[in-house]
Amino acid sequence: MRDFDEGKVLHYFDELIRVDSTTGHYEAIQEKLLSLLEEMGYAGTTTRKGGVIVTVGGEGDPLCVSAHVDDIGLMVRRINADGTLNVCPVGGLYPFYCVTENVRVYTRAGKVYTGTVCRTPNSIHVTEEELRTQLASYRKDVCVVLDENVSTADETRALGVETGDIIALEARPTVSGGYLKSRFVDDKACAAVLLAFLDALKKDKVTLPRKLYAYFAMYEEVGHGTVVLPHDVADFLAVDIAPTGPDQTSSERKVSIFAQDSRFPYHYRFTNELIEAARRAGVDFVVDVFTPHYGSDGDPVVCAGYDVRHAAIGPGTANSHGYERTHMLGLKNTYDLLAAYLNL
To answer: Which of 157, 187, 281, 343 is deepest in the core (most CB within 10 A)?
Structure first.
């Protein structure tokens, strides 16, 4: 099978990152995935919750590999008297990681408005001590200001904006020095790796040593992305970011094999198989433990009661749930470990 193609991975990442897909708002990204898979020659099926599943091929001992494509974001909680929007997070998006970001507000009638996440008050020159000493809070002093001439709640409602509307943040992707920087590297970079892997399998007409499913999940960021699986899955492998930090072994230039997350350990023997595959193939990897605030799509699979072995791998990634960064080598090593585990 052909080697990691950086250009192909960046192409798929660009295709995915252009589509806003805050958790729950999945229709557009689902359509994009189905289109990309059809171009490769695959027929994707969908779940009632928006997931896209592909039967890749092979016989026996089915393995399901997943990557999620939902993003953290915001939702309109209420419309303020001055026409700005009070918001709440969708997934783990903290105020200090989104204030000053540009956003798109999606109304349920199909209109889209742009705006900015702001502190209130919003100018440090006239409220210096307040802005420097207070931690931003969605409930008290953070709002979305629309790029519209509105100054009352009624004027904002006249636009069609209401409580419950989804708000997506601009991703701002760029590549510099081999580093991919963007919002939503978690997990669209991993989904791009999986798409490139599927494309290589199809173009090279690879004969798989076991049955393989690819699962592009929604709702991972709120903890229930993969509660429905094909009935015969024996092993489930989540491909997700490996957060870096002072207590972590993860590196942006390596693939991490997860030993445990904030809920429970991953399957010991399955994890050992991944470690041995990485060693045999010369993949640059580390083993890491992610606590106290991390989980992958392997967790809801187990909690849903599936009798499967579960494991997780992924590229080291900095600034998780903010403006994230990984390295192309981390993505390459993730791709190479997938190939090595399948003996391709």
So the answer is: 187
Q: How far apart are CA 224 and CA 221, in angstroms?
A: 8
Domain 6-71+184-341 top-level CATH class? alpha beta
Q: Tell me if 339 sits within 8 A of 265, measured CB to CB.
A: no
Distance from C-alpha of 163 to C-alpha of 166, rounded to nearest angstrom: 9
Task: Check if the beta carbon of residue 166 is closer than 8 Å to that of residue 22.
Answer: yes
Residues of the chain with CATH 2.40.30.40: 73-169
**Beta-strand runs (E) in 261-336:** 285-289, 309-317, 324-327
Strands 255-260 and 285-289: parallel
pTM score over 0.90: yes
Sole residue written with tokens 């419950």: 164
**How many whole angstroms from its chain centre is CA 263?**
19
Tokens of 72: 């953290």
DSSP at 82: T
Note the helical H segments in the chain.
6-17, 27-40, 128-133, 153-158, 185-203, 268-281, 298-303, 328-341
Interval 269-315: pLDDT, tens: 999 999 999 999 999 999 999 999 999 999 999 999 999 999 999 99
CATH of 73-169, one of 3.40.50.300, 3.30.457.10, 2.40.30.40, 3.90.1700.10: 2.40.30.40
As a whole number of angstroms, the distance between CA 195 and CA 37 comes to: 8
* HSE-up (13 A, CA, CB side) for residue 168: 23
